[in-house]
Amino acid sequence: MTDASANPAQPPLRAAIIPVTPLQQNCTLFWCTETMKGALVDPGGDLPKLKAAVAQAGVTLEKLLVTHGHIDHCGETGTLAKELGLPIEGPHEEDRFWISRLDDDGRNYGIAGSVFEPDRWLKDGDTVTVGNLAMLFSTTRLRSWRSSAMSCSRARSAAPTFRAAITRT
To answer: Using CA atoms, how far apart are residues 158 and 113, in angstroms rounded to an integer?
Structure first.
């Protein structure tokens, strides 16, 4: 018989917030505690800082996720994807305009930025997986802005659903 209190159960998802760029936009590193596979959400810049956070957490990145195309949220996503050989998922294709301006916006804001093409544009209702986690991508129109959210649930498990949200407003 083992003592369950000696090794308490891990939550299915862990996350760390890493402020990046001069605008201090919050990049999220989240990972599946069962597989230690994770993703960076909105890795807009400060790549050495992001790589250090991933190493400190002991996570193996599977992909990069983007909620929208503003320079502070995705300016260096393409660069990081190339450096690490990772796919990019998101944002919604309506953000193509913003991504196409990353070079110019970078110069205007003094933030590194380079245009990229995601490996997968996300649509409302798409599922994104990381480790044994599944995330439902949803979008909502708020006035003229598109708001994106990814709701997380534990995949391939009979355990009660775990919910969290990574949002952009």
So the answer is: 42
Quote the pTM value.
0.83
Other residues' Cβ atoms within 10 Å of the Cβ of residue 94: 14
- Residue 160 within any structural domain of the chain: no
Residue 59 inside a domain? The answer is: yes
Pairing of strands 60-65, 37-41: parallel
Q: Residue 101 domain-assigned?
A: yes
Domains: count for the chain: 1
* Domain hosting residue 41, numbered range: 11-123
Question: Tell me, what CATH number does 79's domain have?
Answer: 3.60.15.10
DSSP β-ladder status, 127-130 and 164-168: unpaired
Task: Please give the chain's pLDDT, 169 residues, in tens.
Answer: 444 444 467 888 999 999 999 889 889 999 999 999 999 999 999 999 999 999 999 999 999 999 989 999 999 999 999 999 999 999 989 999 999 999 999 999 899 999 999 999 998 889 999 999 998 888 765 544 555 656 555 444 333 333 344 444 3
In terms of DSSP H, where are the helices of the chain? 47-57, 71-74, 77-84, 96-100, 102-109
Q: Show the CA angle centred on residue 105, arms to residues 102 and 110, nearest 5°.
A: 115
